[in-house]
Design brief:
It is built from 14 helices and 20 strands. By secondary structure, it is of the alpha+beta class. α3 packs parallel to α10.
Length: 476
């Protein structure tokens, strides 16, 4: 019995010894691996490389299908012929003919066409027109026509965007004129019965005027073509959306008011396009485009409210609304310590335009946010708390966790790395004079006693750990 117990204990010792040998062998292999820490030497850039080879085959111009915002399906079906003819007319004005995206991909990218055959043959692709010109350099543009309604008035919006980054390059609108009596009598009224005629006339008044919509598209396109593309710095990108959508068709389209707000009061900023998101994502996927949509680093949430008196004035375009804008940062979604809450007069201009009479508070507040995202400036120390330095630049600027920074004079007297982020709750002010609503916290590893408020920092270009210099290296 004792002999069996002795053999069992000896077997357990051998088993434990073998386990220890395996553990030590694995640990030795791990220690021998060449460990390096990747360092971000600059703010991330958008990669627009295509997977389809060295030649760029992305079309230069896209014409997206109609977007019908806040228009009921019956009205869209009744005006199908008008929408199709005006869409083709706009394609001619853009100089791209009637080459569909499906046909273009079948001829130019047969491999992508075969791989994404179901997607490419979908209605979204067969109703999207493109140009034969390929994007060798410069931007690839997408034009999106939008039909919407505001207080039973038809509005056409034409939006020109960057087809790669989804940023708005230009946009304009026009309120359509009513269908005239000649068009009513010639194309809609077909009965001799009085009751039927009245019913047909009521239905016909809901129809779009073909001449009116085509002429409006031509005028807006000519205006956008004469304007310079957006040249504002790409540091601040803004998205604007409603806190809740409206179910009242053909009445008050709050998304249209947001677009009108962006047209007039966000001209100096990059605005993320809200239309045709699914179509653009599918086009990126079909072409194998590595680039992603431009993400907004500041989000504006709007709440539009109207009085009962304004709701009763069905035919009046000039009304007053109450607008509340709640801003937040696009990284962590924290609310910013400012907002816009004021009355807005929606005014009908003589040139078939709508205008929003708004104060300058929104643009002035966004100017402050743009300063905090200026890529030409280096992060500066706004506050020192022991070994931790609160910088006036944050994640939206480009600072990531574990990024290593040194003092901006290029010496290595002060070194640190990013360990956390902070928001407006700290109530800090940048040494440059503006409030810091989104910043980063850096831990100082070297030179803690030399750090001062106002000092600027740059990326440390040294890899850690450094490689041992060989005989061909210039490092001695």
């Amino acid at each position: 019995m004792s002999t069996q117990k002795h053999l069992t204990m000896e077997a357990m010792q051998i088993k434990n010894l073998n386990f220890l040998k395996v553990f030590l062998l694995l640990a030795l292999q791990l220690l021998c691996l060449p460990w390096t820490i990747p360092i971000a030497l600059s703010a991330p850039e958008i990669d627009v490389t295509l997977k389809t080879g060295t030649q760029d085959i992305f079309p230069k111009i896209f014409l997206a299908p109609w977007e019908t915002t806040n228009v009921d399906s019956d009205a869209v079906a009744a005006n199908r012929t008008t929408l199709i003819s005006s869409h083709k007319k706009l394609a001619e004005e853009l100089g791209i003919g009637q080459l569909t995206l499906s046909t273009y991909m079948k001829e130019s990218t047969p491999d992508q066409y075969a791989t994404n055959s179901l997607l490419v043959q979908s209605p979204a692709f067969t109703s999207t027109y493109v140009s034969m010109q390929q994007q060798i350099s410069g931007k690839s543009i997408m034009v999106i026509p939008v039909w919407t309604k505001f207080k039973k008035k038809n509005i056409v919006i034409l939006t020109k965007i960057d087809a790669i980054t989804n940023e708005i390059l230009g946009m304009d609108h026009e309120v359509l004129s009513e269908i005239n009596e000649e068009e009513l009598s010639s194309s809609q009224i077909k009965s001799t019965n009085t009751a039927t005629i009245k019913q047909q006339r009521t239905q016909a008044q809901k129809m779009l005027s073909t001449n009116s919509i085509q002429n409006a598209l031509i005028r807006i396109n000519a205006l956008l073509s004469s304007q310079n593309s957006l040249t504002s710095p790409p540091d601040l990108a803004v998205s604007i959306a409603n806190i809740s959508s409206s179910d009242r068709k053909n009445e008050f389209d709050r998304s249209t008011l947001n677009i009108l707000l962006a047209m007039e009061h966000l001209k100096g900023f990059r605005v993320v396009n809200p239309y045709s998101q699914e179509l653009i994502a599918k086009i990126h996927h079909a072409f194998g485009l590595k680039a992603q949509f431009r993400k907004a680093n500041r989000n504006l949430t709007t709440i539009w409210s109207f009085s009962n008196k304004d709701l009763m004035q069905q035919n009046a375009l000039q009304i007053r609304a109450r607008l509340l804008i709640r801003p937040s940062d696009g990284v962590f979604g924290q609310s910013l310590p400012w907002q816009v809450d004021e009355d807005v007069d929606i005014i009908a201009k003589p040139n078939n335009k709508l205008s929003l009479n708004l104060s300058n508070k929104l643009s002035e507040s966004l100017d402050v946010e743009k300063k905090s995202l200026n890529r030409a400036e280096n992060p500066a120390a706004s506050k020192i708390y022991g070994a931790w330095v609160y910088l006036d630049k944050g994640r939206a600027w480009g600072l990531r966790m574990n990024d290593r920074l040194i003092i901006s004079d290029g010496t290595t007297e002060i070194k640190g790395h990013i360990v956390s982020y902070y928001g407006p709750e700290q109530k800090l002010t940048s040494p440059r004079g503006w409030p810091v609503n989104e910043g980063a916290i850096m831990f100082i590893r070297k030179g803690q006693d030399k750090v001062k408020v106002g000092q600027e920092f740059i990326y440390d270009k040294m890899l850690v750990p450094t490689h041992w210099p060989n005989e061909n290296s210039s490092v001695k």
